[in-house]
Amino acid sequence: MQLTDSDKAMLDGEEGPAVAAAMDLLVRYGRALDAERLCDVRNVAGTMTQPSPVKARLVREGGWDKAYSVINLDCDDALEIPDMRVPTCQLQQSFGPDSVGIAPYPKELIELQSDAESFYGRKGVNILATCTPYQVGNIPVRGEHVAWMESSAVVYANSVLGARTNCEGGASTGSASLTGRIPCWGNHHPENRYGTHLIEARTPVEGPLDWGMLGYFAGGLVQEERPVVTGELKQPDLLDLKHFGAAAASSGGVEIYHLPGVTPEAPTTEAAFGGAAVPEAVPYGERERRSVYEDLNSQGDCTDVDFVLLGCPHASLDQVRDTAQLLDGKRLHSGTQLWLMVPRALRTTADRNGWTEIIERAGGRVLTDSCPAMSRSAPPGTKVFATDSAKQAHYLPAILGIEAWFGTLEDCVSAAVTGRWKGDLR
After folding, report:
1. Which of 27, 280, 422, 425 has a CA-to-CA distance to 197 between 20 and 30 Å?
2. 5-190: which CATH topology?
3. What is the value of pTM for the model shown?
4. Domain 297-418 classified CATH 3.50.30.60?
5. How many C-alpha atoms does 265 have within 13 Å on its Cβ side?
6. Which spans in 223-327 are helix H?
7. 3 state SS of 173
8. In terms of C-beta density within 10 A (0-12 exposed, 13-18 middle, 19 or more buried), how is residue 400 classed?
């Protein structure tokens, strides 16, 4: 690898042993990827505060310095961790204090997480605690190299914002935070960002349900490649693109997609393919739409719904408002719980707008920082859940061993109020 003088100085320990360990990891990582060099990053989204039994043991052995050294630097020594070199945020983590008595999540891990937040906050980590950092102020600009984790955040950063990142891990982001460097490979190179497949929507796509299903179809088709989508697409908003990207990253491994005339690097279909020949379009019609819906709903037989999960990726303010409007004046079924997962920063706004009060008056809960998939925790006794998220319908049955129903926000709120699933594709 071609290292700059600054890289070599960090590797040689001129900025301390923790930075040297971080640079050593990045050099090993880059060589494994056959990267020729490192590139500058000034925006890192990673995980430092997420609690676990392993992290609790490491903290007992050597404090949070030890935990960061082992998990985020791949180093067995308890190195003194300096302040973050570049702006860094914490992504979603485990349930926060607002879940105590609601989510069956160990209180000691919540306390461990709070202790971690204090430590890393002093080190310069911005505790956003959300899988949607772009909803609460972390918005990189087009062309900016960043180092982000979390598949739905990565695909949004690349596709909607035009930033450049691969789907990084805890060690690479931990090292990037201390050095401002990351291996320059994959999505950091313009030639690796052009489309590979063309999908033509031949049935109208409008609203989060249909955008999520189209994303699920696209990911299943292209896997880790790069879809370009055209056709009968109504103008998407943040919520639509959030659901599309999250679903595409779940059924496949999509890290970047293009919607000509919408996403920043695809003013035209030709531009999305970088001037290369445009491939023959794969159709997405009513038959494919029905097939995706049936696939996502193939994990449920019982129509008695114990649990309704909304907000994956974390809900936008529009989703919180719409949920409140649907629940206004109603009560949840006695055997059904509803959790709406939001970034804590947006929970504050929802509180001020009166939406949280309406949802909680109906019996629902507005929870922050995490989700049942991340924390592996759902209401006790849950056997069947309903969600408006293709991503959660894909993952949660395998993680928690429960049945799933997928539908619109209206379908899910109806299930929460009646206790039964009545959704269907319209």
Report:
1. 425
2. Aconitase; domain 3 (3.30.499)
3. 0.97
4. no
5. 30
6. 238-251, 269-272, 286-296, 317-327
7. helix
8. middle
